[in-house]
Please model this.
Amino acid sequence: MNFVDAIDGDGAWARLPTAAKQQLRDNIFTLLGQVGEKRRPFARSEAESITTPMLLIGGGDTEGTLSLIWRVLAEHIPGAKTAVIPGARHWMFEQAPQEFSKAVLAFLAG
Model:
């Protein structure tokens, strides 16, 4: 699936286990719905207006625009916290569930 390779690098789809591939196939209609929404780009001023505590998490090995997007958002959301999960990509919650959970729980414990 080209979408998965675009998010997680060349060959990412081929590396996914069968169950993960099926989960993505089952969820494809959500993505198609988002495409149809024709969302406008997120403005810097919108990020700057967020007042809710925010944790932006990224996989340390995530490639492409996703890695850039969450880092830039973190720079413009007041008080945003970030966490990087080493050795993981976009699906870090499956690739490194303990590290992901630790980051989330630390944020929630605040």
In short: The first strand starts at residue 55 and ends at 59. Residues 1-39 form one domain. Residues 18-37 form the longest helix (20 residues). The CA atoms of residues 46 and 74 lie 12 Å apart.
